[in-house]
Amino acid sequence: MPVTELCDQPRQSRPSPALLIAVFAVSMAVLGFEVSLTRAFSVLLRFHFVFLAVSIATCGTGLGGLVDFLLRRGPLRKASPPVVLVITGSLSALLMPLTFLLLFASPLSAKLTSVWVVTALCLPPFLATGAFLSHAFAWFSAQGGRLYFADLTGAALGSFLVIGALQLFGGINAGILWGAGIAVGMLVLCSQLEPGRRAALAWLPVCLVLAVGGLLVANRSGAVVNLPVLPLTDDPNAKPLYQELGDPKVGAKIVDTEWNAFARTDVVSNRGVEDLYVYTDGEVPTNMLRFNGDLQALLPRLQEFIGYYAFQELRPDKVMLIGPGGGLDILLSLAVDAKQIDGAELNPSIPRLVRKYGKLTGHVYDLEGVNIRVDEGRSFISRSRQQYDLIYMALTKTATTTSSSLALLESYIHTTEAFEQMLRHLSDRGAIAFVSEHPLILMRAMLTAVQALETLGTPRQEALAHCCLLSVQPEYMAYGPYRYLMIVGRQAISPERSRQLAADCIGTHLVPVYFPGAFEPEPFPQLTRKGMSDAQFVDWWNQWQGYEGSQRLDFRPCTDDRPFVVDMSVGIPPQFTRFLWAVLLLAALLTVCVTVWMRRTAPESYPGVGPLGGSALYFSLLGVGFMLVEVVLTQRLVLYLGYPVLTLSVILFSLLLGGGLGSLWSQSWPAGAGLAKRAAVAALVVAVGALLVYKLQPVIVASTLAWDLRLRCAVTMALLIPLGFAMGTPFPTGIRVVGAWSADLVPWMWGLNGVNSVVGSVAAMSLAKLYGFGSVFMVGIVVYALAAVVAVMLSKSKAVCEAEAAAAEP
Length: 810
Fold this sequence. Notes:
This protein is α/β, with parallel strands linked by helices and about 800 residues long.
């Protein structure tokens, strides 16, 4: 049956397959577009900036529903719904590639470090998408379960397809590609229109498909749209790569680039330097040294790196490298005749690029005894049964940006639990060596290692004797990020051995920072002699440095529950706080204004302020609760699956697919009396199900950690799909309840749910910083329980009972 005929029937009519396909395509594309946009920004800018900029933009999906609400009350009151859907969908398809053109191929590229410019450019496609989806849900509100099924399953497929798109096309081209996906969906929708309207509207998606296809072809051959090379040397939001490219003294030039779902990897040459440098998402580079197979000839250069000190003193036979990068760490191992060199490199592009430049690197990844796997370091160690003489990690980063309104994945390689696992995997003479570019990261690592040793049964004062710290000479600090070194031994360092290590440090033109019993300048006596706790030491250090108020820093050890290793700020970052309050204020203001306006202008049959406010609160709680639960699940399972991007994809797919099936099942619930009570039960089931997953997940992970990755993915899906099934039922059921009052209410509720989902993602990271991810998950459970309470109260209101009775009439 044509969409126009269906739309002229009561809202209980079933949406056509064409409309379901269109909703599916739009949901798939908007998730892919968001991830691609974030992936592109993550190369240029710091992750806090990316999170805020794209989160503000993705609020547009919710705000689009509110725009649709206002338009339905005004200019679009008598407009044909299928026409509105085709136009808003086509507009979204047009704005996606246009956003990338404006961001990366126009004079506005010079403003990419302005959060307001980025927000203004990224907001329009999300507004159009939100308007399309809310309009579809408003027209077929009684069929919310079926539409939500198409919405969630489309997003589920998008969560997997975006991985392939990023692998094949890169962040820029993948972002452009999603516009064509929506255009195809609109073309399918046009095929169901009556002939006159079909002829008038079908040219829009056809032209869009051709235009996007042409832009992709042109961009793959000529790089019409690409990340700009900007003079960002003085901008704190810019990544090191773009600071280097903007410095004429360095003469940096990108000679090779590879995109994948994990990151963009750039190979860079500097003027007058024979080595190459490999940047992952523009972060601190790893060295790709020129090596012709003669280690003796290369040895003087290797000895210049501070990390060589650890290899020289320990002379390890078995080495574990966490993030071997461009091959420097392998060469350091070979230089001391290590027999077994294992490694875990998270970025799959780096091994390929090192092999691609094999003539320069001496095919270092393929030398005898070298076994480097693409894996997350902590996950690899937790599954390993090996004992190593040295576990070495240099400049390992923790912050990895993902889909901004979903989560900021934190690595777990520098937490207390990580150091415990590494210490357990050391031989009797083994040690951990950690290279850092910042002294406070080094200090935090030392306190973390001491805490891990305490957990394993070593008294605190003795644990301090397991550590030694050193740095490069002050005049060499500006020549590279390899500046500080910590060595933590499985055994305590004797005073004689400590003095010898300090003498060797000075003899190799390095600077002693702390050697137990041999060299303990301030601030270390506060730990070794006065026996301060970590909290007392940090407080004393801030007073010693004269830091007060907002200047105070916190470098106490981090745990898996609060793994924010590189964030030294006290409390929530101010950008997050301001954004969180702004979005909460926006949601509250919209709720009050729209409620008052509707009571003044709407028919008397509309519900009162109480039911309207209760419905707004219900959908707001669902938006917040979903994100709180999802963010924590993503964080907790990254160790289990190993790869951050794979973790996010599997979790999203599982929750969204389960949610789609749950929403489709909820459509079988009969309209009429009791539907609001069913919404309450659905929200309560989510709370109970989330609590069960929270309790079962550690047990399941511990018992299956050694399984093959594919089996671990299957276990994750089996754990989360039932939870997703439950999470997919409260929203469409609520849509059916408010749709029975008026279809005009649906876009408003859609908008509040979307805006508050961004509130949930920001709140999750902010609360986790203060209280840990475990507390955040419990808050998510409580939020769903509150949504159930609100639904129960709504079910008892007179307006809801009357609307349900009317909906039940044949």
